[in-house]
Design a protein that fits this description.
heterodimer; A: alpha+beta; 2 domains; 4-stranded antiparallel sheet; 7 helices; B: 726 residues; alpha+beta; 7-stranded antiparallel sheet; 5-stranded antiparallel sheet; 20 strands
């Protein structure tokens, strides 16, 4: 099994076996052979051998339909734990010849198919497969091994190969809205104001373009359907403040849940275009705003003490 | 600094559930299905064609055009109708014709229930077997060539059900747009691939055909099919036939080595009818020839001499020449046991059994064409000592009293047996005896009513009557069935004998001479032969005395006839070179290749090995072709070498476009910590344009031609990189 971010299929890890239809053909060839022998008919023999040869040649061509395919890991956006990850990767033809009826899947039962040749005869450079998978845990997510299979051209044989993408996808903690009771009332204005704003943000303020980190639950699907791109319902809060989020804000809370709370707060603050800082044990992200700052915070939350906590 | 923003991913992928939900594209399947059946229709009753076409139009209208839905029980009803129809046509369900008819109808009905891919597989793969069934009826080269079309159509249908992007939209659940995707360019591509597969399959097929070990003989015996072939039959009932159809089908071809017979020598003997029950003449005698029985024990002699050739012994009635002919006959399948020879054979092949009436039979019925060599001496007298005289003089009691008494009276008038026979021939010649293919049906005393009342008939009537009259006066006589005449293929050196040449004559035994051929039909006066028959019988040479067989130049024969000869020559060549290939020839080929020492298993293994080598070759060939991109790889290696000075590597697990974007971004992805780029902005721009050029040729229309690769290589070579100033 090949493990890399760009995989070119070759003979080594590719397997082939007849399908049910293939076995049916073998049976029919046997019948034809018996009939030809019985009548000692040379044309019948010739036809039998022709069908036999086509079967043999189709071994090569079924094989070749997978050989020379290149799978390349796509740009997988980080998602929050508990959400669906649309794990995507691209397929292209390294051999330069069209490949048809290619299927991929995490197992042999739930497969997705596509052709690298359009019905108009255009050879596609590249096509994208998306395998949806629900991710449960924050941290690095490695997609399970992927099977690619095909029985093109005649469906008499099935060829398959397993591979695995090397680079993992970063999964952020699941954002959970902290309850009032769990928050340590430390003399911290920022903390207070943060909590306040969290409760205040009820005023619907139209839609804005989706940005990384926006909770999926807030996506305005109606608007998304109407226009190109994704939009979320945005809520403005009355107060614009600075916030400082800290690991110690939730001292009585279990560690994973703390990360989820912090994740929620960070996202919330970013929605309100506030400046915020994040402090975790042994790590401090200084006050800033903007998407890069957000991603930095989220990445730190995702990777925080990964080995110890999970 | 920028962060990749969320983009809605687009994909053309289709889930397996959705594929299974899709309606089966039935059009290409239906076309393949019909192409399979077409050649069979030539050999099966016409109603089967009508029946299958009706089923096809019902299925087409309901499945493709969605005009209506077929009722559920329809298939059962149609099946019962079909089985009843086959039984009505053949009065049985077994046997070749009935069996294949049944299969053809069942196959025709199968399209009613195409619901899943599984049904398509069964339908299409069974099609291969149906194609084979056609060869049970005909070995024509034209049909053999035609069969490639349904094979391609089946493969195309199988291929098309595996296509995902077939140009049809399935999004709306209700309406299925069944746009036929034939011969748009992707279909053309797929079709060209099929032709390629076929071309690659052909060499393997030839190897298998030549070397695959074969079993001999039929595995099970098929019931003979008497009504299938026209031509000669093993019995003769002259009174019962009211109309005889001349079939132009070829009975056999003969090629002479050395001398060729002329005119009246073209009597091809097949079998002897020795017993008459008052209505029908049948073959009873099965005594094996003494000479043949003696010689069959000598293991080394493959050709048996059945009658020692003695010169100048014959004073025959019909001919005075006594020439020896060596020839080869290619006999079409007769479904009978009899082999045909020119007159009486003096040498025959070893597999045959020679009876003492000089007819030759085989142990198995001839279901396939057979080719054999023989020698004949025409006019050779035979069986000087008569065996089983009573068999050849017996007549059923009480039949044809008028003929009996007439014969006895006539014999008293004649001095010898020969004179008696001559007087009968004279009677036929001088009195009002007519030759016709539509004689009146005659009742119980067929000889009486033919001889005295009707005086009209064909060869069987004349032969039967002569033998009856001879036996009536105790002269041993028998009816001989065979062929008379031959047509030379003027473009080649062989003779064609058709079923319309089938003939019946007699052999009379004279003391001191043995069996002598007498053909009473030849005694009929020319002006009493139906006008049209003369033209039909042109190839019979001088059967009717005054009708001369002219030798014609090739230039004189009409074009249509020339074409016919040419076609037959093609067919004969096809037969000689291809259809004759059998176990013996396979063995000969092995011997000539020095493979005869090997066992069957070893040969099978060797064939397999050859095929594997061939397949590897195909694969290699493909890899070699892939090698056309190798300039590209050399160029990339060179590029990497240049980049290595700056700690940059175009990693094989990164696409170039991705590399490009990294380059542009200066590696700012938060979780990516790959090497720093120390290239100057100018160099980055150069690299960028270079890589863009690479991408443009990699996915270009020309599919990365050699020229484009060379251009890329040249650019890589020219590329100059420099360190950034910082």
């Amino acid at each position: 099994m090949q493990i890399a971010d760009r995989i070119v299929l070759d003979q080594r890890s590719t397997y082939i076996l007849p399908t049910k239809a293939g076995f049916l053909l073998i049976l029919i060839i046997l019948l034809m052979m018996i009939a030809s022998t019985n009548y000692q008919n040379n044309l019948a023999f010739l036809l039998t051998f022709l069908i036999c040869s086509i079967g043999i040649v189709s071994i090569v061509f079924t094989f070749k339909n997978l050989q020379g395919l290149a799978f390349e890991l796509g740009k997988n956006q980080s998602v929050f734990a508990g959400e669906q990850l649309n794990f995507n990767f691209h397929v292209s033809s390294q051999s330069g010849s069209p490949h048809l009826g290619i299927a991929v899947g995490f197992d042999k039962k739930s497969l997705f198919y596509l052709d690298l040749l359009s019905s108009e005869g255009k050879l596609y450079n590249k096509k994208t497969f998306i395998l949806s998978v629900k991710v449960e845990k924050r941290g690095w997510y490695s997609a399970p091994k992927i099977v690619t299979t095909s029985c093109f051209p005649f469906g008499l044989l099935k060829v398959w190969s397993w591979f695995k993408f090397k680079s993992p996808v970063l999964i952020y903690p699941q954002p959970i809205e902290p309850e009032e009771s769990v928050i340590n009332r430390i003399a911290n204005d920022d903390g207070d104001s943060n909590n306040r704003t969290a409760n205040e943000e009820t005023e619907y303020d139209g839609i804005t373009a989706y940005k990384i980190g926006d909770p999926i639950s807030r996506v305005d699907w109606k608007a998304t359907a109407k226009e190109q791109g994704m939009y979320i319902k945005s809520f403005t809060s009355m107060t614009v403040n600075e916030s400082a989020f800290s690991w110690d804000d939730f001292s009585n809370v279990e560690y994973e849940l703390r990360l989820s709370y912090l994740c929620y707060l960070v996202l919330n603050a970013n929605d309100q275009k506030k400046m915020f800082s994040l402090s975790l044990p042994g790590l401090f992200v200084s006050k800033d705003s903007g998407e890069n700052h957000l991603i930095k915070c989220l990445a730190n939350l995702a990777l925080f003490k990964l080995d110890e906590l999970l | 600094m920028s962060v990749p923003s969320f983009q809605a991913l687009s994909t053309d992928q289709v889930s397996i559930e959705e594929i299974n939900r899709r309606p089966i594209k039935i059009t290409s399947v239906l076309i393949a299905h019909q192409l399979v059946l077409i050649p069979l229709y030539f050999f099966l009753p016409f109603w089967i064609f009508v029946f299958n076409s009706t089923v096809l139009s019902l299925v087409y209208l309901s499945q493709v055009k969605n005009k209506f839905n077929l009722i559920k029980g329809l298939k059962v009803i149609l099946t019962l109708v079909a089985v009843a129809g086959v039984f009505a046509s053949f009065h049985r369900l077994a046997g070749r014709d009935a069996g294949v008819s049944l299969i053809a109808i069942m196959y025709g009905l199968k399209i009613i229930e195409i619901e899943s891919k599984r049904d398509v597989y069964i339908l299409m793969l069974l099609g291969f077997f149906l194609l084979l069934a056609t060869f049970l009826f005909s070995s024509s080269a034209l049909i053999a060539i035609y069969q490639f079309i349904p094979v391609l159509a089946i493969l195309y249908a199988l291929q098309s059900i595996h296509r995902i992007d077939d140009g049809n939209s399935y999004r709306s659940t209700g309406v299925v747009s069944n746009r036929i995707t034939f011969f748009n360019s992707s279909s053309r591509y797929l079709f060209s691939q099929l032709v390629k597969y076929l071309m690659l399959a052909l060499p393997i097929m030839i190897v298998l055909f030549l070397f695959f070990p074969r079993l001999s003989g039929p595995i099970w015996k098929m019931p003979g099919n008497k009504n299938a072939t026209s031509g000669i039959s093993e019995t003769m009932t002259p009174g019962a036939i009211s109309s005889l159809h001349l079939s132009d089908e070829i009975a056999f071809r003969a090629k002479f080595y050395g001398d060729e017979p002329t005119g009246s020598e073209f009597y091809w003997r097949t079998l002897v009818l020795d017993t008459f029950d008052g209505l029908t003449w049948t073959h009873v005698n099965n005594v094996i020839s003494d000479n043949w029985a003696k010689e069959r024990n000598s293991p080394f002699q493959k050709i048996k001499t059945i009658e020692k050739i003695k010169s100048n012994q014959s004073t025959d009635l019909s001919t005075d020449t006594n020439r020896n002919y060596r020839y080869e006959i290619a006999l079409e399948a007769t479904q009978q046991n009899w082999l045909t020879f020119l007159d009486k054979p003096s040498r025959v092949i070893s597999i045959a059994k020679v009876l003492n009436d000089a007819s030759v039979s085989t142990t198995r019925k001839l279901f396939a064409r057979i080719k054999y060599r023989a020698e004949s001496q025409t006019g050779l007298s035979f069986n000087k000592v008569l065996q089983s005289r009573s068999l050849y003089t017996s007549l059923p009691k009480g039949y044809n009293p008028r003929s009996m008494s007439w014969a006895k009276k006539e014999r008293e008038k004649s001095k010898t047996d020969e004179q008696f026979i001559q007087s009968i021939l004279k009677k036929i010649h001088q009195e009002e005896y007519f030759y016709t293919l539509s004689p009146p049906v005659m009742d119980e005393n067929t000889v009486d009513s033919f001889l005295f009342d009707e005086q009209k008939g064909f060869c069987e009537h004349y032969a039967g009557t002569l033998v009856f009259l001879a036996r009536a006066v105790n002269i041993p006589a028998r009816v001989v069935i065979g062929y008379q005449g031959a047509e030379k293929n003027l473009l080649s050196d062989y003779w064609i004998v058709r079923h319309s040449n089938a003939h019946a004559w007699t052999e009379i035994w004279f003391a001191g001479k043995g069996w002598v051929r007498v053909d009473p039909t030849a005694a009929i006066a020319k002006h009493r032969i139906e006008e049209q028959l003369l033209t039909d019988y042109a190839q019979r040479g001088n059967l009717f005395e005054s009708f001369e067989f002219d030798s014609i130049n090739v230039g004189d024969i009409p074009f249509s006839k020339q074409f016919e000869f040419w076609l037959d020559q093609l067919d004969s060549g096809w037969n000689n070179w291809f259809l004759e290939y059998n176990l013996i020839l396979q063995k000969q080929l092995m011997t000539s290749l020095g493979l005869d020492k090997l066992s069957r298993e070893q040969i099978a293994l060797l064939s397999l090995l050859a095929i594997i080598v061939f397949m590897l070759f195909i694969n290699m060939n493909w890899r070699f072709k892939k090698g056309k991109t190798s300039i590209l790889f050399i160029a990339i290696r060179l590029l990497n070498k240049k980049l290595s000075k700056y700690n940059i590597k175009i990693q094989s697990n990164h696409g170039f476009d991705e590399f490009l974007s990294h380059l542009k971004l200066g590696n700012t992805h938060p979780i990516n910590d790959s090497s720093q780029v120390k290239l100057s902005q100018k160099s980055i721009r150069r690299l960028e344009t270079l890589l863009q050029f690479y991408l443009s040729i990699r996915y270009s229309q020309n599919n990365c031609s050699i020229e484009e690769q060379k251009a890329f290589y040249a650019r890589v070579k020219k590329l100059k990189l420099s360190r950034s100033a910082k």
